[in-house]
Amino acid sequence: MKKYGPAALIVLFLFGLWELVSRIINLPFIFPPPSGVAVRFWELKETLVLDHLPSTLAIILLGLAISIVLGVSLAVWMVMSETAERAFYPLVISSQMIPTIALAPIFIMFFGYGIWSKVVVTVLITFFPITVNTFDGLKSSSRELRELMLTMGGTKKDIFFKVQVPSAKPHFFSGLKVAVTLSVIGAAIGEWLGAQSGLGYFSRRMMTQFDGAAVFAPIVLLSVVGIALFLIVKIMESKSMKWRKLK
């Protein structure tokens, strides 16, 4: 616990400062204190957890799954083919030049207010770190090891699975840890702009009712979801790379 002591103290200080400033301003419908958010969260816990959390989780998990499959597949293809790298790598970079929030209304217009418009937004946000990190990891494998495998009679398949994949694992998990946190943002953005359920939708609905504490309550739950997903990925990373000492 000593390792996380400084971070815990900083968090407590920030929450204390938030509480103090909120009490001084005394505008709870705009800037509610943390204690008010906690009380409101407890009052709304069943609605948030049972009615809206499943919708948001479905968007996050589906978007992440699609991003992992497409991102890793494209990264492998670009490593194997210089033509594919020249064709797709600039497009992958360019996809991040346009603000996602500007494209979200277009996706809603195309796919409607169902789950797929929000999934597309999530994929667009999470696809980039997974693809680029995996690609860089596969490209960073030791040239000496690849040449040694060839001299020992190794095939391209052997080199890929025994040299390039282990080299890419740390990069892949780094990208995935970024992606899981961004997936929460993507799902929330999609639900804010158009949805019939979900934590982002609930927060926007409470904003129209000037219920500041209820606006913050689903945001707290979104933060918990993001932290939980990050920790799950970190555990997966630790289990799949026991040779690497993770701090």
UniProtKB/TrEMBL annotation:
<keyword id="KW-1133">Transmembrane helix</keyword>
<comment type="similarity">
    <text>Belongs to the binding-protein-dependent transport system permease family.</text>
</comment>
<keyword id="KW-0812">Transmembrane</keyword>
<feature type="domain" description="ABC transmembrane type-1">
    <location>
        <begin position="53"/>
        <end position="233"/>
    </location>
</feature>
<dbReference type="InterPro" id="IPR000515">
    <property type="entry name" value="MetI-like"/>
</dbReference>
<protein>
    <submittedName>
        <fullName>ABC transporter permease</fullName>
    </submittedName>
</protein>
<feature type="transmembrane region" description="Helical">
    <location>
        <begin position="57"/>
        <end position="80"/>
    </location>
</feature>
<feature type="transmembrane region" description="Helical">
    <location>
        <begin position="87"/>
        <end position="113"/>
    </location>
</feature>
<dbReference type="Pfam" id="PF00528">
    <property type="entry name" value="BPD_transp_1"/>
</dbReference>
<feature type="transmembrane region" description="Helical">
    <location>
        <begin position="213"/>
        <end position="236"/>
    </location>
</feature>
<keyword id="KW-1003">Cell membrane</keyword>
<keyword id="KW-0472">Membrane</keyword>
<feature type="transmembrane region" description="Helical">
    <location>
        <begin position="119"/>
        <end position="138"/>
    </location>
</feature>
<dbReference type="InterPro" id="IPR035906">
    <property type="entry name" value="MetI-like_sf"/>
</dbReference>
<feature type="transmembrane region" description="Helical">
    <location>
        <begin position="172"/>
        <end position="193"/>
    </location>
</feature>
<keyword id="KW-0813">Transport</keyword>
